[in-house]
Every structure is written in C-alpha cells, then in structure tokens.
Amino acid sequence: MISIDIQPQTEFLGNNYWRKLRQVEYSKEFEEQITKTVIERENNDSDQQFKHKKSIIQAKFCKSKEFLATTSLDKIVRIFSMDGQLKHQFENFLDSDKTISFSYNGKFLAGAGSYDKIIRIWNIDSQILQFELKGLKSKISKIIYFNNRDDRIISVTQDNQIQIWDIESGIILQTLISQQNQITAIQISNDDLRCVTGSLDGMIIEWDLKNYQLKKQWKGHQKGCFALKYANEGHTLVSGGADKKIKFWNMDKYKLFKQFNGHTNSIYAIEVEKDIVISCQFNQTLLWNMKTLKTIQQISSTQLDYCFVEMMKDSFVIGNNGNGIKVCNFD
C-alpha cells in the first residue's frame, strides 16, 4: 500500500497545488487499473475539441456571448464557441494564467497567474491586450469580475488581501485585509454589494463591497473551505470544504440550516442551478437535490490535476483526464 499525505499549508496555486491538498491512498493493482481506464476512455470521454497540451486549470462561461474559456498549464488561454470550435487564443509566455474571468458584457477576458503579479485583460474581439493591472506585492490567487459592470474587478493575493480595482485607471480603489489563513475561495453576490471568502482554516467572511468593510465572520468548516456559492438571490450561501460536508447558511441570520454529507473526500467546487447542486471532489462529481438532499446523478472522474465545475446555458463542464473537460447535460 502506497500512501501520499501532503499537508495543505503549501504554497497556494503552485503547479501541484491540488495534488498537495489531496490525500491519496491506493494499491499497485488499483493504480494499474486507473491507468488502463484512462487510456481506454481518453478518446471517448474527453471532449476532444476542448483540449490543451497540459492540464486545464479552470473553465469559465460567458453568458452574454456564449463562449467558454479554458486556461491551462501550457500558458495558453483558449476561447471556444459552444460547438467546440476555437475562436481565440491568448498566450502568456511568463506564467500560466491560473485564474480567469469574463467581463459582464463579454467584451473582455481577464487572466492572472500567480508569479508575475499582473492582471492582464484582453479585448476578445480585437484580440489585443487592453489593460495590465500592476503594483501588487504578493502573488495572485483569484480574480473575479463584478457581475453587473465592466470597470470593476476583484483580486485576491496570497498575503490575504482583497483588492477592488478600477480597471480603466488601473487604480486599486480599496484593499480589504483578511485575518484568514490563506484565502481559497471568493464569490460575489448577484447585486455586487457583497462578497464572501473562504480559507484554509475553515473560516468564512462576508464583506460589504459598498462600504468596504467586514460584515460577518464565522467558522464554516472544521478544515479548509474551498468552495462558495450564493443561492436563492443571495439569501443562502452554499459552502464546501475539506471536512467533506456541504453546508447551507441563512445569510439573513448567518445561521446553518442544512447540511449534505454525500461526499467521501474534500469538496473543491460547487455550482447551483435552481434546486440542483453540482459538487465536485477529485474522483467524483455529484448532482443532488437541494431540498431533499438526495443524490440524483454521480459522474466519476480519473486523473484530475485540477478540480472545477462551471455552469453553461443548458449544461455544465467539469475537469476530465487532466488536459480535457467533460460537457455534461442534466438528466
């Protein structure tokens, strides 16, 4: 029996970050079986038109233009139409863009690695680099556009700071400083008035983005909190973490009111579509009913380097076999 146990307090979003967060235990026979399964399924399960040469880190869907963007360790960001045709390609020769976000109108795509501390914003139509946001002193772990405007973006850096940028001027309007132990997740409410962050110590913080101040802080998970999603028009927050639990929080009272215990490993990604929750661990994605807490569908995965789920128009995408993605429909 081979056991790999690497502590999660390693450098955030390094090339082996997701592997370092996992505890994998397997026999030699099981490893050979997994390898055989991957080879057999590689051409059938992976959506070949959404491919990179190296591991795909993240996928983002643009609602206004119906584009899908993927970013990879090959230092290339690709934008695909929904039929899988490559429309645009942006390369960052200095660093892999480990986090990407579309602007509200779909005109721009922002990307950031962690090492060069620069946020690059591409004009999708002209395929030119429109803006470069510089001046950060720490590596970037997350970026996310506001939901209803194209001139504001949020970045999260590894020194536990949250920056709100005015894009056109390239100025940081406000910096929020968190006492959390390594921010691992961020989500903005649909009205852009609030955001929540999760961290490796399991803490969750909700921030007031109008007055730039902390609203509420609480212990959400016994271990790391890796996934957050607002639901029910912001009245509910769904969180998932290393304790294998998915929790529902009443955001009017900041109270836990429901919990899903269907996972066997850490949860790294969550999406919500009406009453359906899609939640991902490294070897499995679950679809389940938010009201009944009953599992509807299970999707097995193998050889994942990065774990993500992204809603599209009538479907969703998850990581698949390292350098591919899998497009899934709701059964």
UniProtKB/TrEMBL annotation:
Is Hydrolase there in the keyword field?
no
What is the species of this protein?
Paramecium sonneborni
Spans of WD repeats, please give. Answer: 133-175, 176-217, 218-259
Signal peptide positions are none
Alphabetically sorted, this entry's keywords are:
Repeat, WD repeat
- Record-linked InterPro entries: U5_snRNP_Component, WD40_repeat_CS, WD40_rpt
Recorded GO CC terms:
catalytic step 2 spliceosome
The record, for CDD domains, names:
WD40 (cd00200)
Its recorded name reads WD40-repeat-containing domain
A GO MF term: RNA binding
